[in-house]
Structure formats: C-alpha cells, structure tokens
Amino acid sequence: MTIARVTEISATSPKSFDDAVEQGVKRAADTLRNVVSAWVKEQSVKVENGKVAHYQVNLMVTFVLDD
C-alpha cells in the first residue's frame, strides 16, 4: 500500500511561469523525498512600473511517504 502527502509551496521567477514551476519542483525534490507529481493551483504576477517583474505559482506537490 502506498501513502502519499500533498503540500503547497510557492515559487517565483523573473523569467516565466514555466521557470517558476521548474524552480519550485526542483526545490521540493531537493527537500522532500519521493516527489511524484505537482500541479499548479494558482498563478500571479508582480507588476512594477507597468511591467511584469516576477511570475509566481502556487504548487501542490505530492510525495510518497516512507514505510
């Protein structure tokens, strides 16, 4: 039997939403064992002087618990 847990994280990038997702998943995998999936719950941008300064994603990350 496999038991998994889901946790929410936020990640930002000055480049793109895709890069924010990549950075978030990479960081989660560096910290959590057995990361198996992630999905984007929310996206937003920070605007400075009328331009996008940062892209932010809130990710739901699933990882399998150790026995």
Describe the structure.
It is a single chain. The radius of gyration is 14 Å and the shape is elongated. It has one helix at residues 17-31, and strands at 4-13, 35-48, 51-64. The protein has one helix and three strands. It has a three-stranded antiparallel β-sheet with strand order 1-3-2, covered by helices on one side. It has 67 residues and is an alpha+beta fold.
Topology overview:
Layout: E1 4-13, H1 17-31, E2 35-48, E3 51-64
Antiparallel strand pairs: 1-3, 2-3
Distance between the termini: 9 Å
Q: Give the C-alpha Rg.
A: 14 Å
- Count of strand segments: 3
The secondary structure category is alpha+beta
User: Could you list the spans in which at least 5 consecutive residues all have pLDDT below 50?
Assistant: none
Pfam family, one: Dodecin
Protein name: Dodecin domain-containing protein
InterPro entries: Dodecin, Dodecin-like, Dodecin-like_sf
Q: Which tags fit this structure?
A:
single chain, 67 residues, alpha+beta, three-stranded antiparallel β-sheet, 1 helix, 3 strands, 22% helix, Dodecin domain-containing protein, Dodecin-like, Dodecin-like_sf, Dodecin
Give a quick precis of the structure:
This protein has one helix spanning 17-31; strands at 4-13, 35-48, 51-64. It is of the alpha+beta class.
